[in-house]
Every structure is written in structure tokens, then in C-alpha cells.
Write a structure and sequence with these properties.
27% strand, alpha+beta, globular, six-stranded antiparallel beta sheet
Length: 279
């Protein structure tokens, strides 16, 4: 499987999240505590939004994140208020740059941890469900990227929660048709540059780990000496595959079968249920 981080809030250097925490994403690439694999070394990617640009930037590579000099260079010089980072452990598809997350289409970023079970058996039927106008945009061979284009086909740009619910429903319908008992396992993040949506769901009801950070004002009250908390505003929020450290009160588990929306104002948490996936 994989590990990922989504950050939204006060613009900061990417390195403040990717390298500096006690159990940073780079540390997780070697020593994951909650992932299926301890080591996640089959590629990495970062995607970030910058002011006054129409589309996010994406940097991806096939090597492990822990010793990549280009990642260090980018992370220590790029500042953003909304960014994604992902380290990959392949579930069977090739280790190649086009299979590394996050994936981008127009203003949208998408990254995923999980699997479509028996994906080779389901791949053809699912690929045929992608809008023909979008299909040429698919560059790699992963189930994660195909999920992205299925969601785009099913209305992601208009209503992300509904599109992801229909995407999940379509995968489950297709899987059951092929005799796959539990077709889908997913924790995923998607953003349009203004808002961030994070989902946790699996067909068997036992999803991969996912956490969100507590409110900054509450954490300041608990930990007045924590320097990072003095540097970021009240709107700052992280969603992570596993906690970045052991700061008491900092991390909350995303409930099973749910999704959250991070945006200026009040963040919200909702129940998630797949819907029939037909267009």
C-alpha cells in the first residue's frame, strides 16, 4: 500500500511537513507503523497549488523518497497553502513515473492508498466506463489513476462526494459481477485548489488508517511551546495516513465509511456510502 499527506492552511515550506516532524512522511517511507508494508519505496510525488496559477504543479519520481535530492530541493524552496505528498508501495502495477501519485487533471489533484481487488479481471470493464473524451488522458496503469478518471466521468468537478460515491459503487458492482467479494479498499484525497476532500472506505468495512489534525487553537492551548503551532493560522489542517508524531491530542481517526471537507470556515465530516455508478 502507500502513505500520504494532504495539507491545507497557512502557506509553509513543504519541508516543514515532509521532513521535519518526528514521524514525517520521509520517515514513514522507511518505517511505516500502520501501513501494510513497513517500507514504501516504489516512487513518490508531491503536488502543490501556487497563487495566480491555473493548475497545480506536480513532481514525481520512481525512486524512494528518503534519498531523493530533487525532492529535498523542492521541499526546502517551495511554499504552498495546499499541497499533497505521496509515497508508493505498489500492489502489482509497474514502478514507473506515470504510476506515481498525485494525479492531475486541470485544477484537480488526486491521490490514493488502497486497491481494487483482482484489478486485472476488472480493468477492462472499468476502463470502458471512462468518458471517451477523458480516456486519452490516462497515462499509467494503476487502479488509482483509473479511479480518478472514473470519478471525473461521474461528475467530480460538479459534486466530488457524489462522484466518488458513484465511482465506488461502480467498482463494487463490477467486482461483484466478476465474483470479487470485497472489491474496493480506499483512503483518498482530492482537491480543486480551494477545498480538500478526504475519504475512508472499504467494501469489507475495515479500511486503511486515516487521521486528521485537531484545531490549531485547541492544540495551542495544550502545547503552548510547540513552535509549529505558532506559525500557522486557525484554518490549518492536515489529513494523513498515519500521525506525524506523538503530540497528545493532535490526531483524530477518520471514522470508518466517512469523508471530510476541509475549506475556509467550518470543516465538516459526513457518512460515506457508495451509490449506483451508472451515468
Amino acid at each position: 500500500m502507500c502513505r500520504w499527506i494532504a495539507y491545507s492552511g497557512t502557506p509553509i515550506l513543504l519541508s516543514r511537513v515532509l521532513f521535519e516532524p518526528q514521524h514525517s512522511l520521509i520517515d514513514q517511507s522507511l518505517h511505516s507503523r500502520l501501513g501494510v508494508e513497513t517500507t514504501n519505496g516504489d516512487g513518490f510525488g508531491v503536488g502543490w497549488y501556487a497563487e495566480d496559477l491555473d493548475t497545480p504543479a506536480v513532481v514525481r519520481d520512481v525512486g524512494p523518497a528518503w534519498n531523493n535530492r530533487n525532492l529535498q530541493e523542492v521541499a526546502h524552496h517551495v511554499r504552498s497553502g495546499l499541497f499533497f505528498a505521496h509515497i508508493r508501495a505498489t500492489t502489482g502495477t509497474a514502478v514507473q513515473q506515470t504510476n506515481c501519485h498525485p494525479f492531475r487533471w486541470d485544477r484537480w489533484l488526486w491521490m490514493h492508498n488502497g486497491v481494487i481487488n483482482d484489478f486485472p479481471r476488472l480493468r477492462r470493464d472499468l476502463a470502458l466506463a471512462v468518458d471517451p473524451a477523458l480516456y486519452p488522458e490516462i497515462e499509467g496503469s494503476t487502479d488509482s489513476e483509473l479511479m480518478f478518471y472514473l470519478a471525473l466521468t461521474l461528475g467530480l468537478t460538479d459534486d466530488p462526494p457524489d462522484a466518488v460515491a458513484r465511482m465506488a459503487g461502480l467498482i463494487e458492482e463490477t467486482g461483484h459481477k466478476h465474483g470479487v467479494r470485497h472489491p474496493l479498499q480506499m483512503t483518498l484525497a482530492v482537491s480543486d485548489g480551494d477545498r480538500l476532500w478526504a475519504f475512508r472506505y472499504s467494501s469489507e468495512g475495515s479500511s486503511r488508517s486515516l487521521y486528521y489534525s485537531s484545531r490549531v487553537d485547541s492544540l495551542r492551548a495544550l502545547h503552548p511551546d510547540a513552535a509549529f503551532l505558532r506559525e500557522v493560522g486557525e484554518e490549518t489542517r492536515l489529513v494523513v495516513s498515519e500521525p506525524l508524531g506523538d503530540l497528545p491530542g493532535a490526531w483524530n481517526e477518520v471514522p470508518e465509511s466517512s469523508y471530510g471537507i476541509v475549506h475556509p470556515g467550518q470543516d465538516t465530516l459526513h457518512a460515506f456510502q457508495p451509490r449506483p455508478g451508472h451515468r
